[in-house]
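Standup notes, structure subgroup. Blocker cleared on the magnesium ion input:
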Amino acid sequence: MAVAVIVAAGSGERLGVGRPKALVRLGGRALVQWSIDALAGVEAVKQIVVAMPPGADAPPGVTAVPGGEARSDSVRRALAACGPGDPVLVHDAARPLVTAQLARSVLAALEEEASADAAIAALPVTDTVKRVPPGSAVVSQTLDRRELWAVQTPQVFRRAALQAALDVPGDVLAAATDDAWLIERRGGRVIVVRSSEENFKVTTRTDLEVAELLLAKRRSRAP
Ligand code: CTP
Ligand code: MG
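Run returned:
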């Protein structure tokens, strides 16, 4: 059986609404609640641990812990509060449009690929991506788009691999924008699972408006 970690302890600077992003209202609930409800519908997930902003109330039905300074700190703290269970599914509360079905498909991909340490939701990049050196405006390279994937969550890990990958100094944790990178940097094997555009990350106010519209559409289609 799996355990799930939801990281929801960020401050939401870029959203800029004066309170933590996970607590912002979206479609009549706290943003974090959408991810909790989606993962609660996954049969293989037997516990959900949420890293919450300091001082926030624990959402009902989950284990809550205070998050840390950096995102991966929050993952580490939440993992430390998880009971037994392997693999570990890690999800960002900032992706409220996640579905139980996507979580199941990432879990299934890792189960089927015995040689992998992690399976991660990702999408082929649709924009052309260019390299521009820091402090410059001059393009130095155009990357081959066929090799580029934009990475999302859920990310599913073999528990021992994730635990070992997170056991690194604070500066390394602070540099990690996703947990799969911590696996890669120690030579681990990470596979991508094709996800959907709807599972985008809410970062700005425009994102929040788009999420609101998509959730309203989803609700109107529900039986
Ligand atoms: N997160 C966390 N603990 C932190 C930082 C981030 O649990 N110390 C979580 C966020 O709550 C979010 C996810 O990691 O669900 C992805 O982070 P991001 O989208 O950057 O959210 P924020 O850090 O809240 O936003 P910003 O960077 O704009 O402040
Ligand atoms: Mg952030």
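Discussed briefly. The longest helix spans residues 205-221.
Next: hand off to the docking folks.
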